[in-house]
Amino acid sequence: MEALKKLAAGVYGDSREVAVYDTVNEKSNSLYDHYKILTEMHAPLQGRLVLDIGGGSGAEVQSFLDAGVRRYVCVDINKAMVARLLERFGTERRVKAYCKDMAEIKITEVGRPNNSLDEISPEESDFYPCMYDRINLSWSLAYIDDAEFLDVFRKLKFLMHRPDGSLVFTVPHPIHDMGLADPPDYHSRGLRLYAAGDKEGFPIFYRTIADYVNIPIKAGFKLEQMVELEAHADDPFADSVRFPDGSRYPSRLMMKWVHDW
Ligand SMILES: C[S@@+](CC[C@H](N)C(=O)[O-])C[C@H]1O[C@@H](n2cnc3c(N)ncnc32)[C@H](O)[C@@H]1O
User: How far is the CA of 247 from the centre of ligand 1 (A)?
Assistant: First the structure.
């Protein structure tokens, strides 16, 4: 799994690569109306505190600011992505971001008041604890293995200790990604190679729909809504799909989770 982590940290390694990612990502998200669906799943958002795990260069941020959130905190393992996010939103006092592996988040750290690209030093680690109303994970779960997934969700459960708290994740739909194996294989979990945009062959952690349901349940969440977005032929992230022309298949899987009190 270390190879996967190194790659996630450096896959969009400099500002040029991040800019390419932004262009391709924006096109893909717009095709699916992703920001609209995501903010609707999290509604109401006015005055809410949001935590974004794997927020990248900040693709989702503006939609949440427009919806009136009080605070938007991003955590991402990739420095170049966080740098881009801060370039866009660094002067917006509601947005905070820092560079960190989600598997290493400590519950008290996410309330950190300052923007920084640096790892959090031990002296800084006694932040005031902060609870969140809304948690986003858009595409970032595809970069951690099942053990980390469970561990991260156990922590997120504490961070979302709010009566109307919600967590929404978006992942590549397993029916879409089963075609990354040749022959297509729905059932084998683990590393697979992905081609997306101008990136060829970077690894993701493939898992099934049952895994995406059972791991959060094990961590103490309750499933409230599931959305399966139909693939668009012109989605730049769908170029590895081996479905014959004219077939209809889901490309993105979104799930909304609440506390199982
Ligand atoms: C495909 S990008 C999605 C970014 C953003 N959420 C979006 O929708 O545009 C996946 C993000 O997850 C981040 N990521 C991958 N592994 C991570 C980890 N272990 N901890 C934190 N972030 C991680 C990557 O650096 C990358 O920015």
Answer: 30
C-alpha to C-alpha distance for 152 and 155, rounded to whole angstroms: 5
Q: What is the largest CA-CA distance in the chain?
A: 57
Q: Which residues line ligand 1 (CB under 6 A)?
A: 8, 25, 54-56, 59, 75-78, 81, 101-103, 138-140, 143-144
Instruction: Record the pTM.
Output: 0.91
SS (H, E, C) 230-260: ECCCCCHHHCCCCCCCCCCCEEEEEEEEEEC
H or E element at residue 174 = helix 174-177
CATH value at residue 46: 3.40.50.150
| Residue ranges making up the domain that contains 184 | 2-259
Ligand 1 centroid to residue 164 C-alpha, Å: 26
Do residues 110 and 100 make contact, with C-beta atoms less than 8 angstroms apart?
no
Cα distances (angstroms) measured from residue 104 to each of 109, 132, 155, 176, 226: 10, 18, 10, 30, 28
Cβ(149)–Cβ(169) below 8 Å: no
pLDDT tens digits, 197-219: 555 667 889 999 999 999 999 99
How many distinct structural domains can be found in the chain?
1
